[in-house]
Predict the structure.
Amino acid sequence: MNRTRCWLAALVLAALASPGGAVSLGDLYLVTVPVAGSGEASQLSAFREAMRDILVRTTGRADAADLESLAPLVSNAARYVVSFRRAAGNQLAVTFNGPAIENAIDAAGLPFWGADRPLTLIWLAVDRGDGRRGLQGAGSTSDEKLRVEAAAARRGIPLAWPGPGDDLGRGFQQTWSGDHGPLVAAARRYGADGVLIGRAVATTSGEAAVEWTFAAAGISAQAAGNLESGPNLAADRYAAMHASSSAGQRSEQIVTVKGIDTLEAYAAAQRALARLSPVRAVAVDEVTPDAVSFALTLRGDPEALRQAILRDGRLHAVDASRMVFSLSP
């Protein structure tokens, strides 16, 4: 893999200098994990496993659940469960108390990584032997792709796979040969912030051996391991850039929403603001004949709120720099 190291950094800076924009994970504190049975012991074990995943996702640290400062959250995971439900395939979907977990992370002095995450375009070429080789695309249903997606979901890394408009045969050759220039450049078309390139070879043990290359704006990294190593590599590098202790700081921001002339419109605006991931509380600051100014308590800085509003789309920008918006029709 060293043959690509010298030129890859320059290529990354040229092709990914303008990031594609973050993708929201939605509910940061909702996770789905396997559950072994229907009894209480199985349920409690699933809660603990779900909490481990949440701590890894929200701190950006693969070892977060094993840290002494966060161990009580894992052992007492049931106390933090807000709701849970059975899902298909012997899975349990669990929602945790986000503010309580955030407070514990803050108290431990650990970095926090919010719900807005970079999008990563992934090129995975698999050689299973006997001439069975190919590139995994958006429509693939292989075990290799499913394993990569599961690992990425655990770390909170949204993925984009090559679509019908890409030549998968050419993509396979470029992935395998180390001609990564076109693969990195394709990130712009997908609105991706980074690219993850993997070459997987089947071994006699049945476990794929994969050489991974990761590229994002200003950085590149390589690793050799299994299918899960790629998403973990990307998550570790992203977390170093995006997870921070300052993300746990609380701040206040006034947001004005125009076009509010009924109770229904007021309720719609309040719901639109309350559902945004940086928002922790919403209160009314001022009411005028055609607008309401809301005082928001935030986790993180106002720029994260501004981007969340624009991405959500329920409010339209009137003057985004001054935090003035209007209700969508």
